Amino acid sequence: MDGETPLPALIEAIAAGDRLALRAVYMRESTRLFGIATAILRDRDAAADALHDAFLRLAARARQFDPARGAAEAWLGGIVRHAALDLARRRGREMPSDDPTLGDAAVEPAMLETLDAEAQGRRLRACLETLEPRSREGILLAFVHGLSHAEVAARLAEPLGTIKSWIRRGLLRLRSCLA
């Protein structure tokens, strides 16, 4: 598998049992996915564990991916997000440490990764600005703050079905904007 193979095709190959495709997805996406896990867990070791769990889930659930329902990158991000949240729930909200300075200094990624992340961030922020405010707020609460749809509904005092509709419509608009 080369770097030019589309991500959906790699996931399809993983579903067929291709271990090289799993390796290719790891090589291509692990840095971004590790960033998601680190943002949720705020602990590099725990994020590495969550990333490992996520790739085990990917190998087991690759057949569930449907490109008609969303982008492969978002699907992978969801797997990592759920793995990180599951790990956080198992370990509790706070992860104790003997190091009082832990978290005081930011860990800098490689310069190229930083530039790429900044460009992607600007593009995503621009697309988010095109959404209706209620869809944008629902998406941010669910995907940035890690709230479930039920928690978003409670926070915004709206019915669960309404929240799901807002988020789904917003994600579809984001998908077309980012395409």
Topology at a glance:
Elements: H1 7-15, H2 19-41, H3 44-61, H4 72-91, H5 111-129, H6 133-144, H7 149-156, H8 160-178
Helix pairs in contact: 1-2, 2-3, 2-4, 3-4, 5-8, 6-8, 7-8
Structure, explained:
- With 179 residues, the chain is mainly α.
- The protein has helices at 7-15, 19-41, 44-61, 72-91, 111-129, 133-144, 149-156, 160-178.
- It is globular.
- The model is unreliable at 102-109 (pLDDT under 50).
Task: Characterize the main sheet.
Answer: none
Quaternary state reads: single chain
Give the beta-strand count.
0
Shape: globular
Span from first to last CA? 23 Å
Number of helices: 8
- Average residue pLDDT: 83
Would you kindly provide a brief summary of this structure?
The chain is mainly alpha-helical and 179 residues long. It has 8 helices and no strands.
Features:
72% helix, 179 residues, 8 helices
